[in-house]
Amino acid sequence: MFPQLLFVYINSLRTCFDKQEFCFTNDFNISFNENKLNISTKKNPYIGLWGEKISDINLIVGKNGSGKTTLLDLLGSTKNRRMEMLGKPQRDELGKIIFEEWFAVYHIEEDIFVIEGHNPNLIENLENIPRGTSSEFSICIKYDFKNKKANYLEYIQSKKQGEYSLEKKLVSLYLTNNRDRDWFSGNVIRKEQDIFVGFQRLYLNNPQLSNIYTFLSKGYKGIDKGFTAKNAICVLERKLFSDSLNKWDSDITNVIKLELYKDKDKILLFKNDFSLEIFQSGEENKGEEWTTKEKFTIKLLESTILDLWLNIGKNELNYNVECIKNIDNILFPEDNFEARVDYLLQVVQKILDALKPEQLMNQTIYNLDFIKEYIRVLISINEIYFTSDRILSVNLNGNYNEEIYDLLALYDKYVECEYQLFHFINIKFKNMSAGELELVSGFANLYAVIQVATHNKKIDTVLLLLDEPDAFFHPEWSRRYIYNICQFLNNNDFEREVKFQILITTHSPFIVSDVPKEHITCINVIEDPSGNLNREVKSAGFGLMSNFYDIIKNDFFITSPIGEYAKYIFKDIVEKISVLEKYDENEIDILKEIISSIGDEVIRIKLQKLLNEKELELLPEEERIKRRIKELEIELNELKNTQGGESND
């Protein structure tokens, strides 16, 4: 069985929600009345609607500020962030403790459910809860459908579901709407772990660089032929070593007593890498015998060694006679690329051996295995990608390259350890618009979803929480989003059976017409006579294949994909079409002219269709017959032409 989120009840949450219910299933009728949880089964007509691997897709729509993000924060945040959101318990005037109370219900199998939330005593028909259960809880229950009672079974981490404990069976992956694009700017990405005892929560805000590369080089071709980032590039830049120096003398060669290659003049890093004369040896720079890739690699290793010596060693290595002697004893019989790399890696090892443990921070800053692996992958990359001894540049519209992927995957693997090598390597993606950036980030994150589902055999269900994933999309990308995400997940081989449940917040009218109204929850903000704002949560009156105009006219979509005056014109056109009661050729021609001037193809075509349908409806019967005869004559001629062409063959 595949765990699935069914229902959320928020009794109180700051000033946002008060006694609000959210239902995300068609398998059950669920409600929470008079502090009692009521569950009954029902027939679901939408089983299999989203494909074999997606159990359900639900939308939450509403104006900005309606609370869509607050709901996903509650469901998807790690424990520390969720507790900050809930705040500390307070006491009322009578001294009674007041909690921010909520709970979520997940279905496991048959009559077995999981309830997570804050304050289990909120549910009065939940029986046999152990004394001492914490305010934040995650428990497994057996529901008595006949008597409407929930009976405690055990804590979720104690419940076995096959080979693994139940809390391992579902993972929530949350793409928030305040995500930074660190990967685009070259900033190092960090992860955050969850310490909650229930279903685990992870964030999708930071896509792996290898996944971004995969999507940009080949992944987008399978979902959106109209993707326009034709000039996108990935740039790996070796930073100047001078940027990392904490302090230096008038001549760096006088600062260190390290005789690399037994001849400091052979250090390539001193040639061209420093613009100041004080770093020059006085001779003309040499090094033409090295290829661009070789210079890139050698200078990277030399930067690593000098950083270890000057910044990590804090000048102490200048007085470590044994270390200097060990380095001097390293053989360097010939000067070629392979010999230099082998020599420099041995120097790194001698320095690491000489440094104190506290200087290395348990070797989490520098790791020889990582450096060796990084250099090995770097050497395997084709020379054509090295545009200078500082720049490796990849055109992402070209063919997928396994070595480039391996290099970025290695970065992803070790970046969490904060290895000092990253101080010399900066990776950026360039030449993308805001919309392209958003599309790439979203689908690159989905590769992480695939990796989670494929490599963690404990997980049966992945709950995807996507907060306004289409916020910066072109309307056509929004219109295709549900289709694309279904194609993306259903067409991947996970090597085992796994289900995805997707919960999306949006205020885009282009998405909702792909989802049945039973799968859409609307949050409205209503101002009462006293000026207080209240949230109203209800099912949608629109959905799958709904008329575009009924959707966009709805108050839930305050943020329109068009300008405010254009929106006024749009509504005016729809209104004029709808009030036409008799055929008026002049009025219809005027409307056709206005519609033909609309730049957005999606909106223009839909308005043209609406007007054509209205025009046909208003035509006199005799005229309708004439038009129908004309259509049939055209169709008959086409058939005759086709038949004639076949006869001539």
From TrEMBL:
InterPro entries named in the record: AAA_GajA/Old/RecF-like, P-loop_NTPase
Transmembrane feature ranges: none
Keywords: Coiled coil
Residue ranges annotated for the Endonuclease GajA/Old nuclease/RecF-like AAA domain, each copy included: 54-512
A Pfam family annotated for this UniProt entry: AAA_15
Coiled coil: 622-649
Any GO BP annotation: double-strand break repair
UniProt name for this protein: Endonuclease GajA/Old nuclease/RecF-like AAA domain-containing protein
Originating species: Bacillus mycoides
